[in-house]
Structure formats: structure tokens, C-alpha cells
């Protein structure tokens, strides 16, 4: 059973930046594809990015494309989400999730439909709060 923990959330002013991290309590992430989701107050959870087990493929939701970047460091068994040019509408709880691929590949399950995308990921963290406010 893979257990994940997010960190790096906090309060930031509009236009600011944050870097979120996701790491497992045990094991490594090197053959897992990883994703980030978020849930804003009063809104449905949405998938915002994924990164393949190779690290060579990443996909993003239109709402964050060009502002957020996901990366991974398998030597540290950590996946990152860099949040730049933050807006008040980015305020949400951010979750990381993992799906076992088993090999180093370019598979990066992503969908603009949350109900479809959530089915691709078996392991979830508990989330970290990001608040964008002046």
C-alpha cells in the first residue's frame, strides 16, 4: 500500500509562487505515474496535471497551463508541483495521487473529466492547503 504525503502549501499573495512536494512514507515512486488534483471551496475536485514514470511526459489542465509545472526527482522519491503567477481562484486543497505503471514509460493518465481521471489513480495523499490572498 503506497502512502503519500503532500507538503509546501501555505498563504501566498496573488502573483506569487509556491512549490508543492509529494513523497511516499515508504517505497519509491520510480514506476508510478503521478498526478496532482485540487479542490476549491464549494467546487468539484479537478485534475490539474500528471507526469509519466519516465518524467518525459506531462499534461496540464487549461486552467493551469503555462503557470504550473510538475516534475519528479526519483533519487529523492519526490514529485513536485511548481505554482507560479498564482491567482485567488487557485485557492484550494491540492492532492497528489499515484498509479502503478510497473515500467518506465510515457503513460500519463489525464482527463479534463474528474470522474474519469480519478479512476486512473489508486493512491492518494491527504492534501495540502494553498491560499492565495492579499
Any overview of this molecule?
- The chain is built from 1 helix and 11 strands, in the order E-E-E-E-E-E-E-E-E-H-E-E.
- By secondary structure, the chain is mainly β.
- Strands 2, 4, 5, 6, 9, 10 and 11 form a 7-stranded mixed sheet that branches.
User: Given the helix and strand composition, which structural class is it?
Assistant: mainly beta
Strand content: 35-45%
* Ends distance: 40 Å
Please summarize the sheet with the most strands.
Answer: 7 strands, mixed
Q: What secondary-structure arrangement, pairings included, does this model have?
A:
Layout: E1 4-7, E2 10-12, E3 18-24, E4 32-39, E5 46-51, E6 58-60, E7 68-73, E8 78-83, E9 92-100, H1 114-118, E10 123-124, E11 128-132
Parallel strand pairs: 2-11
Antiparallel strand pairs: 1-3, 3-8, 4-5, 4-9, 5-6, 7-8, 9-10, 9-11
